[in-house]
């Protein structure tokens, strides 16, 4: 069933072989404890109070009546909270979002802004007091409207330039035989992971310890040390099990407010966010308005490509959803322009959310390619193959393997694409119209410097220590297999310990870089340990430990256009009487480097594709213009795909080892969602003959 992936010859063959999660039994029996349920002696509980106004100034926080309530220990707010140091650029290359630097002034920049923390002996007492706390405000008018013609939009250089441009767009468009000029929109979307954010902070022998749920313990430890002006060695962050992250679990208000309260009260304090609080405090995907202009010659070769994406950010933090970035890698054209722009509005700060940029950007770009294929009278796959670039269209760099065409060939064969009638709206089955669609996917394949320690124990087992994060991906299991191969032993002799900043600096579980970054460091330490063990033969009681640091090796990596790719296929049925769209089957074929664990990799890729179905058909956070807040900000009101919405979803891959990576890994964390919504939308057009350019494709929009 699985296409074999090859890599370096290894002693045990663990890498590439399906392996169940090493912590799976702990998770299903409840033995695995999550951040909000680990017991501490003398624990106090904090409850955040969020602003009810969308913009203004705090006039008063009436703490006295609340402090008299049962169990209440303190109320922290801008008038009494410890001052934080926020004037720095953190390890992610950005200053901290002021949303997490809580209680520093009386400004309210958006609805759901944290204005106070009530701390009590029990969570119930804290919640009751928090709900009773009276805060008065001076209201100011607010503005939350994102529109394509906003004069205050401006391009933002995030981790990539805001604008790239070459050639004469207008001239090439005018000379093109076929032109597509269309606008697409995607709504505000939320991560909504199963486990809400939770942190417990305590001082222990002069060290700050935070037990948290996050995507990188050394990242969060570094931010807390900087904010509280502590020596880096005085902060320890642990995060053993994480029930989902998706970009949202970095430094947030819950950790910072818990540390403040633990410092003031001199006892452990836990802050757990409610699901409603997560909708304003933990970031989200900005809505986007994207204009795509494509011009092609009679043969479908692109002469002009223009992709402009407009997203929004808060007035306090500049974050751009870089949706036009995907065009910089996917297709070349004689004239090529991309722009990522933002408008600053009175809304909560957005953040990274799975496939940031690529997920909404690929919806617009890949749907526009489908429209161009129709204009050109070309098969959508053939159009893409004719436009495969030789080198990075904007970077000019060589590709470190670009096996997109292989994904399309394998996908087309397995999906049965060859028999497809290109005409839209001609397949009917009772009240259902049927259609199929395809789209390309790509996501950068990077690596972050990491350190690891591997110990040969006296009993013949091995312990790996690395500040990795398993946010549900199966990272722990992947690293077990990688270490086993590098050591030349069976996986059962390897234990992997992760999620502790005391293990030393390591990259985050983010940007699809986790497994690659950590595997590199683990491999380096394990291979050296194996070499060292051969001559001696015996291991002392304290074991033999080898440490690695990949900073230099990653710094020396050749500059290439390094991406994972994929081809997405979807078949849909559209009910002509209700407008309901049902996905009948999906297939994704990926070229995403060497696959470490086919079992968890398949789950991660299909999980991304399911999210793409959800993005295409269901997800939409609707903001109320009057209050500035959301309608139904919880799992009851935020519609996500459920089992009944997810039919046969299959993911597989072609052989694609990265030649420059010690294990051959690229990354699979995000490429699964990319292109998935476009494949569904293109299938809806094929079924109905109508282009749906605004997500989600709700029944009322279809009718
Ligand atoms: Mo991912 S959005 O980089 O956690």
Write the layout of secondary structure elements.
Elements: H1 24-29, E1 44-50, E2 56-62, H2 63-67, E3 72-77, E4 107-108, E5 114-120, H3 123-132, E6 134-139, E7 154-155, E8 163-166, H4 169-174, E9 178-186, E10 198-204, E11 207-212, H5 217-227, E12 235-238, H6 253-265, E13 269-272, H7 275-281, E14 288-296, E15 302-314, H8 327-330, E16 335-345, H9 358-376, H10 380-386, H11 404-415, E17 428-429, E18 432-444, E19 451-456, E20 462-465, H12 475-487, E21 494-497, H13 514-536, E22 544-549, H14 551-555, E23 563-575, E24 581-591, H15 598-617, E25 648-653, H16 676-688, H17 699-702
Helix pairs in contact: 9-16, 12-13, 15-16
Bound molecules: dioxothiomolybdenum(VI) ion.
Dioxothiomolybdenum(VI) ion (MOS) binds at residues 215, 245-247, 352-354, 356, 510-511.
Question: Could you describe the 3D structure shown?
Answer:
The longest helix has 23 residues, at 514-536. Helix 8 (327-330) links the parallel strand 15 (302-314) and strand 16. It is built from 17 helices and 25 strands. It has a seven-stranded mixed sheet, sandwiched between helices. Strands 7, 8, 9, 14, 15 and 16 form a six-stranded mixed sheet that branches. The chain has a five-stranded mixed sheet with strand order 17-18-23-24-25, with helices on both faces. The structure holds dioxothiomolybdenum(VI) ion (MOS). The site of dioxothiomolybdenum(VI) ion has 10 residues, from loops.
What would the keywords be for this entry?
seven-stranded mixed beta sheet; 17 helices; Aldehyde Oxidoreductase, domain 4; six-stranded mixed beta sheet; disordered N terminus; 703 residues; binds dioxothiomolybdenum(VI) ion; alpha+beta
């Amino acid at each position: 069933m699985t296409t074999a992936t090859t890599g370096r010859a290894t002693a045990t063959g663990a890498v590439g072989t399906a392996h169940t999660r090493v912590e799976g039994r702990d998770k299903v029996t409840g033995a695995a404890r999550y951040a909000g349920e680990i017991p501490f002696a003398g624990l106090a509980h904090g409850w955040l109070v969020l602003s009810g106004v969308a913009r203004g100034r705090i006039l008063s926080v009436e703490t006295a009546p609340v402090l008299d309530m049962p169990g209440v220990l303190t109320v922290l707010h801008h008038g009494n909270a410890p001052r934080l140091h926020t004037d720095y650029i953190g390890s992610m290359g950005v200053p901290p979002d002021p949303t997490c630097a809580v209680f520093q002034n009386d400004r309210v920049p958006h609805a759901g802004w944290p204005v106070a923390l009530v701390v009590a002996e029990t969570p119930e007492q804290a919640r009751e007091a928090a709900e009773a706390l009276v805060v008065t405000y001076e209201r100011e008018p607010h503005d939350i409207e994102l529109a394509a013609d906003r004069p205050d939009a401006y391009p933002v250089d995030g981790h990539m330039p805001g604008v790239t441009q070459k050639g004469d767009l207008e001239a090439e468009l005018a000379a093109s035989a076929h032109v597509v000029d269309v606008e697409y929109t995607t709504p505000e979307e939320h991560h909504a992971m199963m486990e809400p954010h939770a942190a417990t902070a305590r001082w222990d022998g002069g060290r700050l310890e935070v037990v948290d749920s996050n995507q990188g313990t050394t990242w969060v430890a570094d931010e807390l040390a900087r904010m509280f002006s502590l020596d880096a060695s005085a902060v320890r962050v642990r995060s053993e099990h994480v029930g989902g992250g998706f970009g949202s679990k970095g430094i947030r208000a819950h950790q910072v407010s818990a540390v403040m309260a633990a410092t003031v009260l001199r006892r452990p304090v836990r802050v757990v966010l409610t699901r409603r609080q997560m909708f304003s405090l933990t970031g989200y995907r900005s809505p986007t308005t994207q204009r795509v202009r494509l011009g092609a010659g009679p043969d479908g070769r692109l002469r002009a490509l223009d992709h402009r994406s407009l997203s929004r950010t808060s007035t306090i933090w500049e974050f751009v959803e870089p949706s036009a970035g995907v065009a910089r890698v996917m297709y070349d054209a004689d004239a090529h322009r991309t722009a990522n722009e933002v408008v600053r509005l009175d809304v909560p700060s957005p953040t990274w959310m799975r496939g940031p940029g690529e997920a909404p950007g690929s919806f617009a770009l890949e749907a526009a390619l489908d429209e161009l294929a129709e204009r050109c009278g070309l098969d959508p796959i053939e159009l893409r193959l004719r436009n495969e670039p030789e080198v990075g269209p904007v970077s000019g760099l060589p590709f470190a393997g670009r096996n997109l065409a292989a994904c399309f060939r394998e996908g087309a064969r397995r999906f049965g694409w060859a028999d497809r009638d290109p005409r839209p709206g001609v397949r009917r089955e009772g009240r259902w119209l049927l259609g199929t669609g395809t789209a390309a996917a790509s996501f950068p394949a990077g690596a972050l410097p990491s350190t690891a320690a591997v110990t040969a124990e006296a009993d013949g087992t091995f312990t790996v220590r690395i500040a990795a994060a398993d946010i549900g991906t199966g990272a722990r299991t992947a690293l077990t297999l990688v270490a086993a191969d590098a050591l030349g032993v069976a996986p059962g002799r390897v234990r992997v310990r992760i999620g502790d900043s005391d293990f030393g600096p390591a990259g985050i579980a983010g940007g699809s870089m986790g497994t690659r970054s950590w595997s590199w460091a683990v491999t380096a330490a394990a291979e050296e340990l194996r070499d060292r063990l051969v001559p001696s033969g015996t291991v002392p009681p304290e074991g033999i430990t080898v440490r690695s640091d990949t900073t230099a090796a990653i710094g020396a990596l050749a500059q290439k256009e390094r991406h994972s790719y994929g081809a997405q296929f979807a078949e849909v049925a559209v009910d002509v009487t209700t407008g309901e769209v049902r996905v009948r089957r999906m297939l994704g074929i990926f070229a995403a480097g060497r696959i470490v664990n086919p079992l968890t990799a398949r789950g991660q890729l299909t999980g991304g594709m399911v999210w793409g179905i959800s993005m295409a058909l269901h997800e939409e956070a609707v903001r109320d213009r009057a209050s500035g807040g959301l309608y139904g900000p919880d799992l009851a009101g935020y519609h996500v795909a459920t089992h009944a919405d997810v039919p046969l979803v299959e993911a597989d891959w072609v052989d694609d080892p990265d030649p420059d990576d010690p294990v051959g890994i690229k990354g699979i964390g995000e490429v699964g969602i990319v292109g998935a919504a476009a494949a569904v939308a293109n299938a809806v057009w094929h079924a109905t003959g109508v282009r749906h350019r605004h997500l989600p494709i709700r029944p009322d929009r279809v009718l």
